[in-house]
Amino acid sequence: MSSIKMIEAAAERLKGHVRETPLLSSPFLDEIAGRRVLVKPECLQHTGSFKFRGAWSAISALDAGARQRGVIAYSSGNHAQGVAYAAARHGTSSVIVMPSDAPKLKIDNTRALGGEVVLYDRATERREEIGEALATQRGLTLIRPYDEPQVIAGQGTVGLELARQTRDLNVNQGDVLVCCGGGGLSSGIALALEHHAPGLRARPCEPDGFDDVKRSLASGTIQTNNCTSGNICDAILTPEPGQITFPILQRLCGPGLSVSEQEALRTMALAFLRLKLVVEPGGAVALASALFRKDQIEGDTVIAIVSGGNVDSRTFEQALEFLT
Amino acid sequence: MSSIKMIEAAAERLKGHVRETPLLSSPFLDEIAGRRVLVKPECLQHTGSFKFRGAWSAISALDAGARQRGVIAYSSGNHAQGVAYAAARHGTSSVIVMPSDAPKLKIDNTRALGGEVVLYDRATERREEIGEALATQRGLTLIRPYDEPQVIAGQGTVGLELARQTRDLNVNQGDVLVCCGGGGLSSGIALALEHHAPGLRARPCEPDGFDDVKRSLASGTIQTNNCTSGNICDAILTPEPGQITFPILQRLCGPGLSVSEQEALRTMALAFLRLKLVVEPGGAVALASALFRKDQIEGDTVIAIVSGGNVDSRTFEQALEFLT
Question: What architecture (CATH level 2) is domain B4-50+148-323?
Fold first, then answer.
């Protein structure tokens, strides 16, 4: 279903609308990792995460009628902001269904980016019921966060850029570490690399204790997490790999990696100090794996995708404590 | 002395060694500024500031013998790190003369980047005497921070990139706000724009009370600051415009702008929240001018150069207070 042709077509639709993020590096990080570390900062993407790519891809792939009727998404995080902004830039409407106890800043941001926020009570309501009723009434198209071929295609454009950028640097072999929740970004990148940089291998990175993808890859069958909250890496806590993403991950990815919350926070501090980037905890796990799992990585060069930077100042200050 | 030909030649020498920094934006910043704001983040440059460009330009322009003997610079800040790293990447040595009370992190960073740090006592020694003695003994070439044509040429490559990037966006008119200390970056950019984007006009931005360039441009003669310390924007506190830079600024720049320390800190918080960038106080004054001096700016689009991101965590936390 997902294919390199879909990723290349998505790249055409994204052209002029998405930011091509650079490759950054620092001799200080190389020193810690024991090899060259190249960082692709998707925190610099529109709305502060790679999610804008998948949202743009999905909305731009709709036929004109469906696009005009609008889209709907369930998310309180990066997917919400990506969908709201991509819809607004397409001149269409978006409904974002969020729990009523979501942080005010996230609700405000989603609204300011053009989303119509519909709140629901986690205790008494099911978001799917609310969403399906609205979708039927208004003819909205649901944009799933990862298990959706056009979303995977959009995230795969990160891999296309990376293939070009590494070729320019004569980097033809190595591990590409990817922050992984449901696997949309990891599977999209893996597909792009398979065709455009076959010496590079995607490897999903997760928080310790929420390493469903790592365990699923190791066992060969879909494994679930016991819980989906209670870790600082909120952006990438998902119950299990997707039905569409997992077969792609299984076919193309190397073994998964996982890091602790402390390692994610320490990495945020290092990204502040050495890269001048604001990275969110869930966006830091790939770079943390590059820095702190060096024995599990091979080769002279490792590439880490920083997937997002939407972090509140209190959490960021917690990370900065590692510098004092 | 400084010319567009020198800037273009510097760009050739920098190719493959310098990062082309992207142009970033946020609808939230546009809203505050009342117009489109494009941000060029030189905090993402090697060593965390644009200074690497000028250092590379100057070192790469030396004849082989002089380059092999090494270079020397007086600086405890961004110029020190730029020179140390550019020299190391050229396979040559650098001596950086720093006050013995400079922050330990800056001394450590400069050493880690390959610089030989020579400390002096501000109270009892003159750095020029120490530097000149060393330079004579060892045949070192002095790299001045701004009043040096090859340094200006290197900084001017920011303007060449900007001219290309704005052309791609069909932005042909507007103000380019530049953080300004001695005027190396401002004069380099102004020269590049004169030839490659004549509808764009450079405008130096400074901290209130340290606005020597703004006053010099207004009066037509070089004005000095009463003091050169006691402001959070430490990277751009200089006593007066340079002898080489001022005539260029005078011929090409629009009126200067200045902002308060509070506005610089608030801008750092906004860059954290909306751009995912770590910006230092002195690196924030151009963007602060775009956001908070809108009545002094004309046109639909304004461009702000973020000149650096080398800020300690305590100062950064001070900025983040504006978000709570």
Answer: 3-Layer(aba) Sandwich (3.40)
Judge whether residue B1 has pLDDT over 80: no
Q: Which residues are within 8 A (CB) of B283 and not within 5 positions of it... i.e. 6 or more apart?
A: B42, B43, B49, B179, B235, B306, B307, B308, B309
B231-260 residue pLDDT tens? 999 889 889 999 999 999 999 999 999 999
Residue of A nearest to B269 (CA): A313
Question: Mean pLDDT over residues B165-175, rounded?
Answer: 97
Using a CB-CB cut-off of 8 Å, the residues of chain A touching B24 are: 19, 44
Q: A311 near A278, Cβ under 8 Å?
A: yes
Domain B52-142 has CATH 3.30.160.100: no
* Angstroms from B82 CA to nearest CA on chain A: 13
Q: How far is B258 from chain A (nearest CA, A)?
A: 24
Interface contacts A/B by beta carbons within 8 Å: 70
DSSP state letters, B94-152: EEEEEETTS-HHHHHHHHHTTEEEEEE-TTT--HHHHHHHHHHHHTPEE--SSSSHHHH
Q: State the DSSP code for A274.
A: I
**What residues does each domain of chain A span?**
4-50+148-323, 52-142
Same fold, B4-50+148-323 and B52-142: yes
Query: Bridge-partner residues for B141, per DSSP?
Result: B71
Average pLDDT of adjacent 10-residue blocks, chain A of 324 residues: 92 97 98 98 98 98 97 92 98 95 87 95 88 92 96 98 97 97 97 98 97 97 89 90 97 98 98 98 98 97 98 96 92
Mean pLDDT of B85-113: 93
Tell me what pLDDT residue A279 has: 98
- Cα A62 to its chain centre, rounded Å, is 22
**Does residue B216 have a pLDDT over 90?**
yes
**Chain A environment of B275 (Cβ under 8 Å):** 44
Distance CA B293, CA A12 (A): 39
Check: CB of residue A44 under 8 Å from CB of residue A19. Answer: yes
Per DSSP, the three-state class of B28 is helix
Give the residue numbers in B contacting A (CB under 8 Å), as ranges: 19-22, 24, 27-28, 41, 43-44, 48, 85, 112-113, 269, 272-273, 275-279, 309, 312-314, 316-317, 320, 323-324
pTM: 0.97
Question: Nearest residue of A to residue B16 by CA position?
Answer: A169
pLDDT at B104: 84
Amino acid letter, A222: I
From chain B, pick out residues whose CB is under 8 angstroms from the CB of A316. 272, 320
* Neighboring chain A residues of B272 at a CB cutoff of 8 Å: 278, 313, 316
Q: Is there a contact between A22 and B27 if contact means CB atoms under 8 Å apart? A: no
For residue A52, which residues of chain B lie inside 8 Å, CB to CB? none
